[in-house]
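Predict the assembly for these two chains.
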Amino acid sequence: SYVLTQPPSVSVAPGQTASLSCGGNNIADKSVHWYQQKPGQAPVMVVYDDSDRPSGIPERFSGSNSGNTATLTISRVEAGDEADYYCQVWDSTTDHYVFGAGTKVTVL
Amino acid sequence: EVQLVESGGGLVKPGGSLRLSCVASEFTFSDYGMHWVRQAPGKGLEWVSSISSISSRIYYADAVKGRFTISRDNAKNSLFLQMNSLRVEDTAVYYCARVLGGGHGYWGQGTLVTVSS
């Protein structure tokens, strides 16, 4: 089955840029989606289809996908960005959605 | 604004059954594929099942295939998950979600299912 690999944690100072990676075999051939989840809340989609943003998501959130790594970039990080972030793809080989294990973003 | 409201969760013994419901509003329900995603306490997100807009395509995670059944009633703007032969490891918050692009663009607040003797 397809596996997505995310670092368990990332720390970033306010105003700086956070880069969250999501690794997978030839992930560039798939569409990657990203979700933000704060404690006790439902997930919120922040990027879909590699680099599109849903309505209402700030431009500070951007996505890219190349080779074996997809990246969610959070620019000008704010305290409110502290959350868990999950990447996800559709694996057409198995007809399954796959989530990464998530990255906890801590704002210093 | 898209709204999704889940219900039907609760405490059930191993081997028991539950039926989850998700009522949708503020969009044309019959135009969109829908999903169930769960999250065990303190764990990450796990996709459970998906159904296309007219129920022509249905998919299940290996962990639930043969035990869970996804369905929808477009006339009632409702999505369902029939869960049979429940196991302790099925304990989780279950979310329904609507398609956006290729992913899960809108989520409900979730309903807690606890499987315990």
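The interface with chain A takes residues 35, 37, 44-47, 50, 59, 61-62, 95, 100-110 of chain B (CB under 8 Å). The longest strand of chain B covers residues 92-100.
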